[in-house]
Amino acid sequence: MKTKFPMLSMLFLAALLAANAAAKNSTSDAQAGIVAPEVGKSLPAWSKGELDIHHINTGRGDAVFLLLPDGTSLLSDASGKTVEQAPFSLPTKPDASHPPGTWVARYVQRVLSSRALPERSRRQLDYFMLSHFHGDHMGAIVPDSPLAPNGAYQLSGITEVAEHLHVAKIIDRGWPTYDYPAPIKNPTVDNYRKFLDWQIVRQGLEVERFQPGRNDQIKLLHDAGSYPDFEIRNIYTNGVVWTGKDSGTRSLFPSVRDLAPADYPIENTLSLVFRVSYGKFDYFHGGDLSNNDAETAFDPPAWKNVETPVALAAGAVDAMKANHHGSWDANSIGLLGNLKPRVIVVTSRAEGHPAINAWKHMTSKDVWPGERDIFVTNVAPATAATTYGIEETAKSTQGHVVIRVAAGGASYRVFVLDDDDEEMRVKAVFGPYASN
Ligand SMILES: [Zn+2]
């Protein structure tokens, strides 16, 4: 988080931290028992004090797993089938022998097997956050989706993850009424609500609606006192954005009463947006937030350009997940020019991710100055042909992307992991980057 020190003390502090980090980096790692990551070997387990952000690649949608400094676990989205994959789909990774939700759960279980975690934390997800109600984030339900062994609901995405891990709390944009901007009814959401009802009664699941502005809805649950400079700030959902002051919010969208149903905001534009801060490190996660039809309209109403006010509320960050898989309707100049990320992770799930216009925004130094490294979880041959230059410029074009922030948040590294199997083999290491 950005603390407001006078400029001189900030500079002094920065110099001190940098000198300190340089002197201590290797020796303190060894003292703390941290294994150095090596290309070709499995990623060393998370250690207490580190912040891990795993962009898990199933080829089938978003699943970002965060292991927070005290061992609190948070999965944002669960990947999953979309109702229609063809004709732009990518292969399921590692392979088609399991559905995406199961691959996500197995990946999370491997990260949670770290001996630095207490026994009970190794089988539990403390938080599951659902960015919005689309199949590539929650798992679409189709007629042949298998029934859960308990018979109460069908399995796909998040409901599959819960077959492998106990889920303690779910936070989404709709609980408990699921009615903004209109009642949300489809087989996937109907099944999800049956799943919530069953889990609440039988497993003690807690469910909450994501509340923009707060920095205490998602918190460290195991040892918060040791990490006072860690925070997750809820920035935005459902047209309501944080004002930047205390937990205040303001509405960006007109009231539903004043809109014709055809003009209602679309699902992606309602995505949860949050910022993770650890010391000087900041990470932005905006789900599938996009400007959508504002990108193809001559003079769209201002409220449809939702990315800019959201980015202004979040402020500059070190790293971000690209919005909406790097799609054409997201990652606008107003988003990127305000976030100014050093590291961008594009979680692509189809041909055309990232789109050429979004790629141009991400790579242009006229949008914001300074270096930036871009990592893409999949680049299909069709994408390489149309988003030209991507193979030469992207730091990676295939694999899981892990951001590992050092204890205290002053620096971080990026690991690209082989997604052909479950060994979590390191393909490449980037950094350390200094947090800003
Ligand atoms: Zn999506």
UniProtKB/TrEMBL annotation:
The keyword Signal applies. It comes from the Bacteria. Keywords: Signal. Residues 1-23 form the signal peptide. PANTHER family: DNA INTERNALIZATION/COMPETENCE PROTEIN COMEC/REC2 (PTHR30619), RECOMBINATION PROTEIN 2 (PTHR30619:SF1). This is Metal-dependent hydrolase, beta-lactamase superfamily II.
